[in-house]
Amino acid sequence: MKDARQTAYAARFNRVLDYIEAHLDEALDVESLSQVAHFSKFHFHRQFTQYIGISLGRYILLLRLRQASYRLAFDRRSRVIDIALAAGFENPESFARAFRNTFGVSPSAFRRGPDWEAWHLRYQFRAPERNIKVHVEIIHADTVLIAVKEHRGPVERLNDSVAKFIEWRKATGLSPKDSARTFGIAFDNPDTTEPALFRFDIAGEIKDSVPGNEWGVIGKTLPGGRCARVRHLGSHARMGDSIYPLYRDWLPSSGEELRDFPLYFHYLNLLPDTPEADLVTDIYLPLK
Hints:
Elements lengths: L1 H21 L7 H8 L3 H12 L3 H19 L5 H7 L5 H12 L3 H6 L3 H5 L16 E5 L2 E9 L5 H15 L9 E5 L12 E7 L12 E5 L2 E9 L6 H15 L8 E5 L12 E7 L2
Antiparallel strand pairs: 1-6, 2-4, 2-5, 3-4, 3-7, 6-8, 7-8
């Protein structure tokens, strides 16, 4: 009975978290959000802080700034004022003030040289697992020729490698974003791997070999074969909500054995063109 009550309580908060992610460009206040979860507005703020570990206002601010940060770093065509308004700020002045107070630099300085390690320190709040029920399909994946930027080192620096891969993609056109699939290959779990030993490949589909280049992008092959596939909806920061049930719940009862190749992702759409709440990612777990 206690577990059922806790599950129901978590589900109500999950509705709030989903709602916030999907409406960052709108006014979000205690009264409207408490109604989403059917909590008393007089107690909701305290309940939220105890559940997440930071205040409601701080949580919303950090999500808005996270969305803006990705666009500053990876969408150089957009003006700062447009990024500020799209992230739910009333004007560029309030956005710049909040950005500097949070990260210690102006939005323009961050755009010129993002310090992702320092940036990640602001996102160390508690993020309870959503406990979603995953739908698993057994499929046969194709073998894919890919261009790869290997990331080796702390996960907090992964976006530096992503930026180099994007630069290579734009400069060469050998793996165009709009007409080629984009993948991520997770050799290690960042939650359990020593930061210096963490490995992740950022990859894009190609048709031919990769010439030598200044970005360190190389050619590899993504092997085909049987896979368990799960579709993850929403932020990449919450990918664990779909990965852990796959390993913890589905795999032990499936009778399946894992193939000697790491878990990988197929990103069906990408930041910053797509808001975090609308991201769609297929997760592949290779099977024998």
